[in-house]
Amino acid sequence: MIYRDSASYGKRQEYIAVSELLKRNFDVYMTLIDDQGIDCVVRVNHTRYLDIQIKTRSKNAIPRDWAYFPRLNVPEGRDNYFFLFFSEGANCYWTFPANDIISLAASAGTNVSRNLTGANAGKYAIRTAGHSSGCCIPFERFDKYKNDYGFALLK
Asked: How sure is the predictor about 144, in pLDDT bands with cuts at 50, 70 and 90?
């Protein structure tokens, strides 16, 4: 991937993710600046809005990292904050409530962790799929967050 391509990959994928939301009849509002960890806002009804952070991984990443999303700032206690992950290698979306990421990180063996030390202390990481023989294989434990099931969590 050349620089121009890699520099714009994330923004292109954000727009593609927003188009997925629009195809599913969500009312989506784009933010101009992502300084609060919010790429778009989804209006569920006249009183409920969801803040969405979109994270994507390219097939040009190391194959074992095709569905690895590190260094996540996950706000605590916000039931309206969601992450929308997309893996090009797995060709899958996962929609996670921020509170679920926090809960999963507190349990061993969930493929979700919280950094306790170092430059990324307090940040979370999630691996939504494994890699084998050139294929990205989504973890079954995250099926309720995957594709249509995950998008349904926003309703």
From this structure: very high
- The domains located in the chain, with CATH, are 3-152 (3.40.1350.10)
Q: What is the DSSP string of the chain?
A: --HHHHHHHHHHHHHHHHHHHHHTT-EEEE-S--SSS-SEEEE-SSS-EEEEEEEEE-TTS-GGGTTEEEEE---TT-TTEEEEEEETTTTEEEEEEHHHHHHHHTSTTSSEEE--SSTTTT-EEEE-EEEETTEEEE-GGGGGGBHHHHHHTT-
Predicted TM-score (pTM) of the model is 0.94
Whose tokens are 């950094």? That residue is 115
| DSSP classification of residue 73 | -
Contacts of 21 (CB under 8 A, 6+ apart): 28, 40, 42, 52, 84, 151, 154
Mind listing the pLDDT tens digit for each residue in 30-66? Answer: 999 888 999 999 999 999 999 999 999 998 889 999 9
